[in-house]
From TrEMBL, chain A:
It comes from Acidithiobacillus sulfurivorans. This is NADH dehydrogenase FAD-containing subunit. Residues 129-415 form the NADH:quinone oxidoreductase/Mrp antiporter transmembrane domain. Keywords: Cell membrane, Membrane, Oxidoreductase, Transmembrane, Transmembrane helix. Its main location: membrane. It holds the Pfam family Proton_antipo_M.
UniProtKB/TrEMBL annotation, chain B:
This is Cyclic nucleotide-binding domain-containing protein. The lineage of its organism: Bacteria, Pseudomonadati, Pseudomonadota, Acidithiobacillia, Acidithiobacillales. The chain crosses the membrane at residues 6-27, 39-57, 63-82, 102-124, 130-149, 161-179, 185-205. InterPro entries: cNMP-bd_dom, HyfE-like. Keywords: Cell membrane, Membrane, Transmembrane, Transmembrane helix. It is found in: Cell membrane.
Amino acid sequence: MNVEWLPALILLVPLSGALLALLNRRAAPYFSVFAAFITLILGISAAWHVEAHGPIHASDGLFALDALGALYLLPVCFVYFTSSLYAIGYLWARQQEQAKDEAEPRYRQYFPLMNVFALVILAVPLVANLALMWIAIELTTVFSAFLVAYEDRAEALEAAWKYVALTSMGAMIALLGVLMLYYGTHAAGQAPTWDGLLCAAPHMSAPLLLLAFVLWLIGFGAKTGLVPMHTWLPDAHSQAPASVCAVLSGVETSAALYMLLRIYPALAANPGIHDPAAWYMTAGLITVGSAAFMLLQVHDFKRMFAYSTIEHMGIILTACGIGAAVHEQGTVYQLFAHGFTKSFCFFAAGLAGIIFGTQEIAKVRGLISRSPAAGWALVLGTLAIAGAPPFALFLSEFEILYTGYSSGQYLPTGLLTAFIVIAFIALAYQATRIAFGAPDNIPEQHTAPTIKIPRSSLAAMAIAFIPMFVFGFYLPAPLLHLVHEAALMLEVPA
Amino acid sequence: MMAPVSSIMLSIDGSIAALFVVFGLGVMVSRQMLASLRFFMWQASALTASALALAYALQAVNLLWVALITFTTKVIAVPLVLRWAAGEEVYGRREVDQAMGIPASVLVAAMLALVGWFAVAPVLPTLHGVPFAAINLPTGLIMVLWGAFTVAVRRESVAQLMGLLIMENGAFFGSIAIVHNLTVIAEIAAAVDVPIVALVIGLLIRSIRRITGSTRVGTLDKLHER
């Protein structure tokens, strides 16, 4: 197959999935899984090609996929597939569990919307033009608003509204930054793409580039969940179905972070901008620190994983600021590994919610005795996302801290270490209470009826567990090479 | 480097910018939802006029597309979409509930205008030969800030949507002076984006009204950390 078709095909398949899901509502879940599976295969093929032969440029410059884009594309495809599979049984089981409520879920809209949502996230690393990337990011909010408001209750609508208002506001702020960069690249005789921006950066006006970056940091920062623009994130995650949270937290927030990472080498290449790393470290550390302390006082286990997402976005941003040596096993690997690890956590949290009929940590005890599969998944997922060995995120967090200390950046690395330790303790404490705590003193309604855990959800969790575990100690040579190539793209051009 | 333009065209664009600001202020402080929508439509018309003036002055054909797209989507499509999705709320002569009084809002607007101006001031000397940048870029950034402020203080979903839309107007008003070479595909995508955003947010507003009996999003405050 001509490789030039790959980017367009990757976008066409979810679009077909959405259309088929609209046409045949009964078979919609299966169309979605099939479309997501094909997308995963195409995504792996595209990444494989990028690793072996270099970037893909297709459709007269409309699409471009380089190593960093490919490394982000892989978790997007993977989470799209596992989330589609998970949703089949999960949505049904959740509906049974909540049958007593008045809320009527938007089941009919779920699968078409989820496919379109995946389509626009996939477009972020695939389209070449900066303006189109912005449109894709803006549309991720638009198409996921009703997924967050899936349950059509006042709380879900409140969460969806906060999500839409804050992230759309951020998108509008970022838009002016995008258009300023458009001018900057054009004035330097370059195309408005990542490559063009990198070539134009040394010749661009430093105040213009810096103002554009600040607008991006505020605008895309709101979407990423950087403190203090993070408030939508815990609310949205507490209300959305777990299958939506997996995509929102695993890969959607990182879409905006991907933009912030990619502008870094352009800032560093401009001689008029002094120490851009300081912006990244400051924004990152404030975010990690705030999230770590918020994790200590959280009462809802889905909100807990949402705060963990905020923490990880901060870690990645700080790692980017710490420096080039960190990027390979640090920044880009953390971005890659966070996607599937966080989706696994939300899958486990979703099952715990179905089993207990509540998300309140204080009302959930002895999950392992009620359901060993869901209980152990929650424990392992929490350990993995907290950065415990032998999971994938341990590798990246260890590398970030090691490189930070060895390069003499003691203050930011020391703060980062302290915040990661606080977050680890908070996450481990909450997970052990949920999983091992004695199931006593729990109100009757929260100990009752056993709903059979759907097989499709268990299968999705089992699939999501594989990279989370295996990539902690083994990376296939092509993937390692892709990580290396992606890391090089964050380095300052000579 | 662009060709110098006549002072008449600069004056025309300056006048349009003044109207753009006045209409933006109207969206921020108007007490009724319908008035807010009308100010937004007038502001989008001012954006269209500025794009036409710049297209003529700079001989930039692409800006004609921007003018056409802006007028079609924001002056025609958005009100239609809102009438369909949240008609009763917008056209029902509803009072807008807001967290801050109008005099205080105007004061904050003045301070945000200063912030916007000082943020752009270092950039302007570097934009050699971009004649309209000194008018459009600060005006655009100020409008982005005003829009964000509108979203923050208004407690009505429709009024917050107006805030988002004037932010977009601001971003485009600022950028048409410096960017008139957006690729056709990006222009088409931008044209599709605005009505989709208005439609989805309109539908969300309708759902909020159906479930809570009102579009006062300021009263939605059940979700928070205990």
